[in-house]
Amino acid sequence: MPHVEILKDLYFVERGYLNGNHFVYRSNAPILIDTGYKAHFAETERAIAALGVNLSRTRLIVNTHTHSDHIGGNKIIQDKSGCDIALHQVGKHFIDTRDDWSTWWRYKRQEADFFECTLGLEDGDTVDIGPHEFRVIYTPGHASDGIVLYNEKGKVLISSDTLWENDVATVTVRIEGSTAPFRCLESLETIESLDVKVVYPGHGAAFMDFKGAVSRAEKKIRGYLAQPEKTGQDLLKRITVYTLLMHGEIPEDRLFDLFMEAHWFRETVDLYFGGDYRGKFDEVLGSFLRRGIVKQRNGCFYTMVKP
Ligand SMILES: [Zn+2]
């Protein structure tokens, strides 16, 4: 698993799509930023151990938001170490009240465990990752508890799912509300004026073209506002891949039923595509099969996307 030292003793671990990228501060009292997806914790653990970090000594986990691909290792690591866990105060509220709907876990049928959130963060707070000072910037839109972390000295932005290089993270208006795309735009505006040399996103490789990424993201969100069904189409595509990654393989004759059992699928098709469940399912899956993103083996579907 590739990892890069981004500031002294602070490592960026690049994962895939099911697991958010995460960060490890190596010391006798290690600090982690995000912890991947629960089902792949063994790999997360290996990546952290490879850096010579003892998880049972973890002092603090900072999460960029409560989605399952960013908090998956929290409970296991907290049980081992008794570490503090920090989230934006909105995310802290979701965790404190055991709200698995606002975190998307139940809505998208994702695996995740509650943990104890011991610290609530606010916009403008400073978080010390060893000697490195990061400013907390509240960036709702994709997630109502989303934050980015900015290190002014190194001009480093940990952008999580607020900013990716060439795409935008899913907008789920049935949970986040119909104004979510506007909040995405506001959050991009909030970070736009930062002086950034390198961006470490929640998914994908690090990149330098910060301004370009912001304007590409703004354009895509404006496209969502102009043609709402694009939001629905992207959501169907994303969560189809996500579901296949979560299960590894799914029997061909089971996949449609599995989708129909999930809130996200029916609601998305209802909202954007007039309730044509079978038609949308066949269309999305058919295009993935043609493009080689989804493949078939032993009567099962699986995806080629990196987990
Ligand atoms: Zn997310």
Descriptive overview:
This protein folds into two domains: 3-226, 4-Layer Sandwich (Metallo-beta-lactamase, Chain A); 228-303, Arc Repressor Mutant, subunit A (Orthogonal Bundle). It has helices spanning 41-49, 68-71, 74-81, 89-96, 173-176, 180-192, 210-226, 228-247, 255-260, 263-273, 277-291, and strands spanning 3-7, 10-13, 22-25, 31-33, 60-62, 84-88, 119-121, 126-129, 132-138, 147-151, 156-160, 198-201, 250-251, 294-297, 300-303. A seven-stranded mixed sheet has the order 1-2-3-4-5-6-7. It has a five-stranded mixed sheet with strand order 8-9-10-11-12. Strand 9 and strand 10 (147-151) form a beta hairpin. It has 307 residues and is an alpha/beta fold. Helix 7 crosses helix 8 (228-247), helix 8 (228-247) packs antiparallel against helix 10 (263-273) and helix 8 (228-247) packs across helix 11 (277-291). The structure holds zinc ion. Zinc ion binds at residues 65, 67, 142-143, 161, 169.
What tags apply to this protein structure?
single chain; 307 residues; alpha/beta; Metallo-beta-lactamase, Chain A; Arc Repressor Mutant, subunit A; 7-stranded mixed beta sheet; globular
Q: Helix and strand layout, with pairings?
A:
Blueprint: E1 3-7, E2 10-13, E3 22-25, E4 31-33, H1 41-49, E5 60-62, H2 68-71, H3 74-81, E6 84-88, H4 89-96, E7 119-121, E8 126-129, E9 132-138, E10 147-151, E11 156-160, H5 173-176, H6 180-192, E12 198-201, H7 210-226, H8 228-247, E13 250-251, H9 255-260, H10 263-273, H11 277-291, E14 294-297, E15 300-303
Parallel strand pairs: 4-5, 5-6, 6-7, 11-12
Antiparallel strand pairs: 1-2, 2-3, 3-4, 8-9, 9-10, 10-11, 13-15, 14-15
